[in-house]
# Entry
Amino acid sequence: MEKKLRAGIIGATGYVGQRFVTLMADHPWFETTVVAASPRSAGKMYKDAVKGRWKLEAAMPENIGNMTVASTDDLEKWANDVDFVFCAVDMKKDEIKALEERIAKLETPVVSNNSANRWTEDVPVVIPEINHDHMQIIEQQKKRLGTSRGFIAAKPNCSIQSYVPALSPLRHFGIEQISVCTYQAISGAGKTFTDWPEMVNNMIPFIGGEEEKSEKEPLRIWGKAANGKIDLDHETTISAQCYRVAVQEGHTAAVSVKFKNKPSKEEIIKLWKDYEGLPQKAGLPSAPKPFLTYFEEDNRPQPALDVMNGNGMGVTIGRLREDNIFDYKFVCLSHNTLRGAAGGAVLTAELLVHLGYIDHK
Ligand SMILES: NC(=O)c1ccc[n+]([C@@H]2O[C@H](COP(=O)([O-])OP(=O)(O)OC[C@H]3O[C@@H](n4cnc5c(N)ncnc54)[C@H](OP(=O)(O)O)[C@@H]3O)[C@@H](O)[C@H]2O)c1
# Structure
């Protein structure tokens, strides 16, 4: 790309926002031109706004540290300084919905990490390797919003991004039932062990709203785009349990699955090894190659060893074996703040550029 696209990061001071800031530092297509956050941070230099709460091992890029944090209150003033925005904020759902629509109506595409618009009928919710064709409903959304280039595209919840990628290549066998238990990292709550010492040596058997999202969002990802909306997948039933565990980064999922037509173990492993989506085929900058990695070792994947597979964008799978109640069971892992949040959003933006939905203003 001759001239980089200008990106704004809304929620830039938060955990996911910090991931965006570091991921964008050397991005070949995008450059960060605006960092925005709440009125608490607005007007401060970025490095001062995050003083004492920089949560990453990677250093803060110097140029971003010296930028002044913008406020979402006056986004009309800076909307022309960006070609699109990433949005990852901790606000009430109705406020996020209003904020994201306001930005889209300023003819500025929004790539959202938030859940607020995931059930808005004409907003695509996409894992780029799996359902890029859902982006077509953006046309209907633009009609509703009265925009020519502004729209909202959302990423799904981080918890589903380990098991939905592993199950997607197997769908033609007819997936009838899934039982999944997720073991989710504390960064999923925007925390480190310093912020949340109660999590050291601990496990909490409840994450508000997470089981519902884990049961329903895959049915949207696996649905069909038609007439400007998504018809949900009605073939599959999912039962989910979600636990917070003493891990800094990486959501693990233990999955049991029942098929209409049971494949062999060898067929499943081959499908995992061969699976490629549009991001791999199109060579998008953040696409991991391979997308899915299967380990033969019984003690893998582990967050400590495998969470950074494919720069935190690859999904790792292991322990495929027969099950006494379902057909098979296995375990899978993905990085919740990279693949499951900022990295997945950057890949989504790359996909939107590739498909012609994001361009220069
Ligand atoms: N952590 C994950 O693994 C993960 C994964 C997927 C999706 N998400 C989603 O991403 C979003 C952010 O999560 P997080 O973990 O990064 O949260 P976080 O660390 O608490 O950061 C929240 C961000 O929102 C900003 N904010 C709060 N009120 C605002 C307002 N009125 N206007 C503008 N900005 C405001 C904060 O700015 P100040 O610093 O100024 O307060 C901060 O930048 C949430 O919707 C979350 O569900 C998180």
Notes: The chain has two domains: 5-157+342-354, 159-335. The chain has a mean pLDDT of 97. Residues 159-335 form a domain with the Dihydrodipicolinate Reductase; domain 2 fold (CATH 3.30.360.10). Residues 11-17, 37-38, 40-41, 72, 88-91, 113-114, 158, 187-188, 190, 336-337, 340-341 surround NAP (CB under 6 Å).
